[in-house]
Amino acid sequence: MKKWVLYIVFLCPAFYASGQKKEMKKSTPAPASKSVYKDEVEGSLEEAKGAAASSPGTAADYVKQALQKSIETNDKNGEAKAYQTLGLIYYKQKVYLQAIANYSKALQLFKNLKNETEAYNTENSLAEAYEANNNTNDAIRHYLALLNYPSVVNNDQVKSDIYVKCGDLSLKDQKLKEANQYYLKALNIEEVRKNEKGIASINNKLGTIYLNDEKPQQALEYYSKSQSIARKIDDKKELAESYENIGNAYRKEKKLDKELEVRKQSIEINKSNNDREALTNDYLAVGENLVQQNKPEEAIPYLEKTVNISNELGKLEKKKEAHLSLSEAYSKKGDYDKAIAEYKNYVSTIEALYKEKEAELDKVMA
Predict the structure, then answer these.
(1) In 242-268, which positions are buried (b, 16+ CB within 10 angstroms) versus exposed (e)?
(2) Whether the predicted pLDDT of 347 surpasses 70
């Protein structure tokens, strides 16, 4: 019997080999389908988004997995989403140049795929990254490019918002002519729509262009239009802003009594709105006004309120300005010890601001 077994094994290798093949066939796993890979890619990207803020390194690992699987299976949509997610991770970490690079890759892939919705979303993210990196021209270019997605930008509200955003960025860069053009395009849309809320808001912005152009009278005309409309539609936030802007115009004209009257009205509105940040601006403006009018006793309580609310909100810029004005107020009052103390507070707040910005930079570089 043993001889026959040996004969079969050694003299019939084909029989032995066929047995081996059967065994190997059983142990080899079936290749994963594309749908399985797609689910894995999407799962990895969801995990990455969840970890983006708290653990960017972990998030990047998830994206790496998704990107590798997408490339292996020639899944261009998955590849685009991986770059898009990587852009988000870098954006949240304030590493804007890397965010821009990855959003740009994602945008091109989505355009090639003719995925208009995701291309629009990525174009918007790219514009935001350029804006955050203070590349105003590129930010405006990409915001305006959003108008080239008709299936997404299918209502006038979105178009108006895009023009307003471009106007805001131009105004920030003191490109007043360009800002004026963008705001007027938005205003035209809002007037056709008869959207009084939008009209009030844009009139405030147009007024600020003229104020920056040293034309306070023209600025007051636009601010007054905004104020009138805001009062009519009971838009308290816009009304408060128009009061603040009118105050700024009066200050520019050195009409301190008129400015003070407007600022105090703004305080009452912002109190009713419980807008603490706006109140900080109001109290500081009133305090500065009263110091200019040589009324330090009246100025001090407003400036102290500014410091208190600034501490509450963590607004060091306003706190710094308030301490400097308090130093001036106490000096005018003849209380030089307090004037010196407030100046020291001013210097220490500048140091705190420096440390805050240094900490932000360290976080980005980590």
Answers:
(1) bbbbbbbbbbbeeeeeebbebbebbbe
(2) yes
